[in-house]
Amino acid sequence: MPLAPGTSHTSDFAGRSWSEAWTEGRDTPGDCIPPSMVAPPSPPPPPPDPQFVLRGARSAVHALHFCGGAQGQGHPLLLSGSLHGLVHIWSLQTRRVLATLDGHAGKCVTWLQTLPPGPQLLSQGRDLRMHVWDLAEGRNAIVDSVCLESVGFCRGSVLACGPQRWMLAMPGKGGDEVQILEMPSKTSVCSLKPEAEARPGMPMCLQLWQADSSPLPLLLAGYEDGSVALWDVSARKVCSRVACHEEPVMGLDFDSQKARGVSGSAEKALAVWSLDEQRALQVHGTHQLTNPGVADVRIRPDHRLLATAGWDHRIRVFHWRTMKPLAVLAFHSAAVHCLAFATDGLLAAGSGDQRISVWSLYPRM
Amino acid sequence: MAVFDTPEEAFGVLRPVCVQLTKAQTVENVERLQAQLQAVSDSALQELQQYILFPLRFTLKTPGPKRERLIQSVVECLTFVLSSTCVKEQELLQELFSELSACLYSPTSQKPAAVSEEMKLAVIRGLSTLMHSAYGDIVLAFYEPSILPRLGFAVSLLLGLAEQEKSKQIKTAALKCLQVLLFQCDCQDHPRSLDELEQKQLGDLFASFLPGISTALTRVITGDFKQGHSIVVTSLKIFYETASFVMADEQLRRVSEVQAKPAVEHRVAELMVHREANWVKNTSDKVTVLIKKIIECVSVHPHWKVRLELIELVKALLLKCSQSLVGSAGPLLKALVSLVNDESPEVQAQCNEVLRHFADEKVVVGSRAIADVLSENLHSLTTSLPRLMNSQDDQGRFSTLSLLLGYLKLLGPKVNFVLNSVAHLQRLSKALTQVLELDVADIKIVEERRWNSDHLSASAETLASQPWSRIQRRYFRFFTDERIFLLLRQVCQLLGFYGNLYLLVDHFMELYRESVAYRKQAAMILNELIVGAAGLEVENLHERHIKTSLEDLREIVTSILEEYISQENWYLVTCIEAEEVGEELTVRQSGLQALTSGAHTRQLLSSPAFSQPSPTICSMNSNIWQICIQLEGVGHFARALGTDFRLLLMSALYPVLEKAGDQTLLISQAATGAMMDICHACGYESLQHLINQNSDYLVNGISLNLRHLSLHPHTPKVLEVMLQNSDASLLPLVADVVQDVLATLDQFYDKRATSFVSVLHALLVALAQWFPDADNLGQLQEQSVGEKESHLSRRPAALEKGLENTTTAEDIEQFVLNYLKEKDVADGNVSDFDSEEEEQSDPPRVNEDDTGPDVEPPLPVQIQIAVDVMERCIHLMSDKNLKIRLKELLPQKSPPKSWYGIDPSLEFLCIFPFAFLPSTCHSW
Fold it and tell me: What does the pLDDT read at residue B851?
């Protein structure tokens, strides 16, 4: 049906064969393309392009978050946080900035998350503040703030506990603790401190989640020493801990359906690990990359694709189940700092070159 | 002359004359009587009416052969009396009527008696006057069944005269008289309208004459064109008035099944007609035949008043007899719609008026019967349309298409009945595409170049000042008449307006994709469909029709637009570009081979249009037209969507702007036109405003396309145009994209340097304009290159400005990016030249010392850009390609403009112009 809406570039891209999307960047030798999948001898297809690029962040982009049109605001939005402390709200319809939020005193915004009740935004900055913004009906005011006690790069994580309640995990004091708060009351639930002999260093990335089988909140944390730990938040103890990397863990994402997660670090490898019935983490395998440094890893909401943000300016896309490399997206001219998937599958990447590229990859979900 | 006011006086005068006449019936006596009558007042005459009439009637009634001259004078005298008096008695009326009619009776033949023309005229006038002089009540009583034979005789007499006489005067008089007899006289004397019963009586009576009247009049109407239009007009009038009176649906509805026993003698009763269903059917069949004949003849009648009357005929018959004459509805509507585009404006206006009236009255939509007839007509028209388009001449095509247009207008929303049939839609589209085929053989299309690279807004101004040139003249293979194209466009617009847009767009998009042969036509049709769907330029006859919703329209437009600007439909070979060919062949070979290779590179685009090895002139022409049509379409879409089109700018603006810079004149014109449309539709003040406000979309397109330069060789041109049309507020965006440009240039030094150099030139010119102080300075400086003395003398003034400008530059330092690395590189490059050009760079060095303290380590963005650009230009200096070097001469002039004055303290920048001079000489 040629008139189906929204079949623009997306369908074009989908129309290409998988092998076409395999294109490697010009100056990087093929990541690990199986021989059978090497492009045919005829002229190589052009490397895939972003669907569009958002310009105007005016400084490096360190945080991205999609905000669907679910709140009745119509068109989906993309939120970006910049090195210079600004949060930009982009309309994906007009591809322009709708509003700019300035609340982090010029310090880098590291994490953005919209909250379940209504159009509220949580922004974490390196000014040791976490702000709650009210974005409803064009407002953009700070309604609440939480003080952070660690100046690290660790991003927070939230888990909805009820219609108006949610749990927030963020780096705590002492350099190695993770603090759990209940919001919006800001009451501290607990502080997760690793055992003295473990010395995992600072937490680098956090993810709160809940198993389908039990309502108990769990926390996955990647640490400075390259290990990933699973915390039982209510029991305040580590269920399992496994060393995945030699270098600090820079990003992790977890697929609770398959009970499998992935983490990236400063080194040249991705680690895939899984969680068994006894809540024990096990490294499944590592996946070597061409260039070192993974700033962020994201699994698409449909659990089919995995995207990694590389310090080598490239975004790599993998088949999540098989970990087959599918594409290397070369567009940025500086390190890619952050990734975000929209619920409809759109991928956004923010980079040090001040641009945000938006990609539509295999959009049939 | 004395006037005799009282009857007594008059009687006294008239009596002897009347007596005399009674005794001796001579012309002289009649004339004497008439002379006397002149002197009698009307009232007196009325009193004496019977008395005076007696001798006259006596003369007429006297048996035996009479001299024609006498009868004529008697009739004339009678007419005079009647014109001044009223007939108050029915018997008198009847008798006079019979006596007058009998004057032209010839016992031997059916035809009117062979008498002189004057005689005939006199009798006709007498009859006419008689009917006028009768009192209203008496007249009605006169039309009773018993009069039928006599009336019938008169009617057939008059018809015979109208048909067979040579004299136009007699014909006209006979027709007028007929009108009087049939209650159709339009003079003031019969103001009374008839009530239902009277109408029915008259209808019953006149029904007997209908066959005779209609056939005779048809013969008159379809007779020689030379007989004069007024006769045809009157005949048409009588025809339709009689038919619409006798066959009026309203009367027929009340006719009972069983004929009432008429209270007349048997002989007369036989003549009576009972208008029951059977009779109606038979009569209608016969009348339909006649109507067809009439329409066939009259619709091409040379006189516009006749055609105008035809419209009245259609109107009267369709409004009053839509049921009884349902068989004629088809031909009648056809006649009407074929006059929609009549050459006479009066006819056109009236036709539209009637169409609108029909629509208002729901004649078509309200009555299933007529709607069916109409769609039946449209069906058969679509069936024969391809054949007609093929075989007819321009005039024939024009009328066929007018007909089509009229049907569409009339059918309105019901047109979907026809469109829903796949076969018919296909036929329609086949006919449209066939006739819209363009003639692409003209070599001029490819030849015409846009040599003067006008500023975009300037060319837009010329376009605006000559609105006629907005529409590019197209040459079609099958017709030359511009009106046909206009009609075709209207047809498409109406289809878009009333038809199911999804269905139509789907169909034509399929056609568009299907084959290159139909692509241009399909695009033209699609463009007009959208214009129509938006309700632009469409005159809506059906008020309740709901237009396509804006959301639907936007969706449809988006999908068409996507198709238009897709790689294989937008980037077509329109010329053989030397640069491209040159890059494919390391060694230049013969022109023919160059051609071939050019085509091969294009084949990578997988455009199905170019499966042939080399683009012929025809195929390039065809491509040019396709692009023009698509550009025009973009403009149409913008107009259709209005400000909603802003959302589509992100995909549409870049391709259009790219075409605005095309070398082919037609394309660049079309693109500029489209830009103007977009500009107006989206509410931008000017093209510059449009470009300026949407540079982010442009930059997006530019930077993405730079990644595939081989597929988008014209990308640099877009940037060029963008730079020419934007201002300093876009500096951050420009800085961003310039990095892309330079990075791409670094990859393509050998191949595409030419186009990049002109971009860089544009960039520097733009920078100079955005920071105008620098520009002034630069111009001074430029002059000074030639004449050193004056240069030195102007120096102080220049310096002051330079200082001023340094502060502006510092204001912009907040935009400064981390370009410092490149500065070092540039420094390194420059140092080589430094030593060579030392003696020439003396004057700037002096300046440098003066303003030294102003220097800040982070460079303003614009200066940094200039530095980066210059760095690249140095590399190009040594290029072997003469063309590039020649182009470079331009940028070499501009650097001084942009930066020499801005920051004279930057030593390496100052050196540049001098570094260039020797190499410039070299290239010459």
Answer: 36
Distance CA B457, CA A240 (A): 69
Q: With 60 as the cut, is the pLDDT of residue B532 above it? A: yes
CA distance B488 to B435: 9
The DSSP bridge pattern shows strands A120-125 and A178-183 to be unpaired
The answer to whether the Cβ–Cβ distance between A52 and B650 falls below 8 Å is: yes
Across B406-435, b (16+ Cβ under 10 Å) vs e yields bbbbbbbebbbbbbeeeebbebbbbbbbbb
pLDDT 10s digits, B143-152: 877 788 888 8
CB-based contact, B604 to chain A, within 8 Å: yes
Verify cis geometry, omega within 30 degrees of 0, for the bond prior to A2.
no
Between A179 and B66, residue with greater pLDDT: A179
> What is the chain A residue with the closest CA to B816?
A58
Convert B518-538 to b/e letters by CB count within 10 Å (16 or more is b): bbbbbbbbbbbbbbbbbbeeb
Nearest Cα of chain B lies from the Cα of A84 at a distance, in angstroms, of 13
C-alpha A191/C-alpha A172 separation (Å) is 7
> B746-763: per-residue pLDDT in tens?
777 666 666 677 777 777
Q: What angle do CA A223, A229, A232 make, to 5 degrees?
A: 130
Q: Is the pTM of this model over 0.90?
A: no
The confidence band for A64, taking pLDDT boundaries of 50, 70 and 90, is very high
Whether B818 contacts chain A with CB within 8 A:
no
Which residues, including other chains, have CB under 8 Å from residue A113's CB and lie 6 or more apart? A65, A121, A122, A156, A158
| Interface contact flag, A55 B696, Cβ < 8 Å | yes
pLDDT of B65 > 80? The answer is: no
pLDDT mean over B528-538? 84
∠ CA B541-B547-B548, rounded to 5°: 150
Quick one: pLDDT at residue B541? 64
Residues B472-491 pLDDT 10s: 667 787 778 888 888 888 88
Cross-chain residue pair B650–A95, CB shorter than 8 Å: yes
Q: Does B562 touch chain A (CB under 8 A)?
A: yes
Using the structure block, give the residue that is written with the tokens 């876009």.
Answer: B730
pLDDT for residue B849 is more than 60: no
Cα(B167)–Cα(B704) distance, integer angstroms: 85
Best residue in B503, B569, B649, B704 for a mutation probing chain A (most A CBs within 10 Å)? B704
pLDDT band at residue B832 under the 50/70/90 scheme: very low
- Helix-strand-coil percent breakdown of chain B, rounded to 5? 75, 0, 25
User: B180 φ, ψ to 5°?
Assistant: -65, -45
Inter-chain residue contact B502 with A3, CB threshold 8 Å = yes
A49 in contact with B, Cβ within 8 Å: yes
Whether the CB-CB separation of A282 and A242 falls below 8 Å is answered with yes
Does A306 score more than 80 pLDDT?
Answer: yes
Q: Which of B502, B682, B696, B730 to mutate to test the interface with A (most CBs of A within 10 A)?
A: B696
First to last CA, chain B: 112
* Distance to chain A for B595, nearest Cα, Å: 20
Give the closest residue to B538 by CA, choosing from B579, B510, B501: B501
> What is the number of alpha carbons within 13 Å of residue B298 lying toward its C-beta?
39
A94: which chain B residues are within 8 Å (Cβ-Cβ)?
646-647, 650
To which H or E segment does residue B776 belong?
helix B772-786
Q: Do A5 and B651 touch (CB under 8 A)?
A: no
* Higher per-residue pLDDT: B99 or B796: B99
Q: With an 8 Å Cβ cutoff, is A7 touching chain B?
A: yes
How far, CA to CA in Å, does B778 sit from each of B34, B129, B785, B918?
108, 99, 11, 20
Min Cα separation B700/chain A (Å): 6
pLDDT of A339 > 50? The answer is: yes
